[in-house]
Specification:
The protein is an all-beta fold. 0% of the residues lie in helices and 47% in strands. The chain has a 4-stranded antiparallel beta sheet with strand order 1-2-7-6, with no helix packed on it. A 3-stranded antiparallel beta sheet has the order 3-4-5, with no helix packed on it. A hairpin with a 2-residue loop joins β1 (16-20) and β2. The termini are far apart. One of its GO terms (cellular component) is nucleus. One of its GO terms (biological process) is response to heat.
């Protein structure tokens, strides 16, 4: 299933889960090419990933304001401390969120038995 791309081309619709060794990684990509690296913030709040960018430019003759906000619900098993992001030279922000293998088992957890 192909997700629609916005008319402006400013969205890269790509929630993608890839195999990574014995686990899986959620890969997200965002086109933030209209923003400088220092204008971009990536953070997690509860189980949501938030991407925010803001550009303000003022001169005597004009004023420019641009804002980018994306919110993505993280699947079970994505630990915020394991999420990594990188920004390419062409302005594509890639966020990798590893999914813990045990989370893919649907809530089943093996409990070890201690032998005395």
């Amino acid at each position: 299933m192909k997700l629609p791309q916005s008319q402006s081309g400013s969205d890269i619709c790509s929630p993608l889960i890839q195999e990574d060794g014995d686990g899986k990684v959620l890969k997200l990509r965002f086109d933030v090419s209209q923003y400088a690296p220092e204008e971009i913030v990536v953070k997690t709040v509860d189980n949501k990933l938030l991407v925010h960018a803001e550009h303000v430019e003022k001169s005597d003759t004009k004023s420019v304001y641009r804002e980018y906000n994306r919110e993505f619900m993280l699947p079970k098993g994505c630990l915020p401390e394991n999420i990594k992001s990188s920004l390419s030279k062409d302005g594509v922000l890639t966020v990798d969120a590893p999914i813990q293998p045990e989370a893919l088992l649907g809530g089943e957890t093996m409990v070890p038995i201690a032998h005395n």
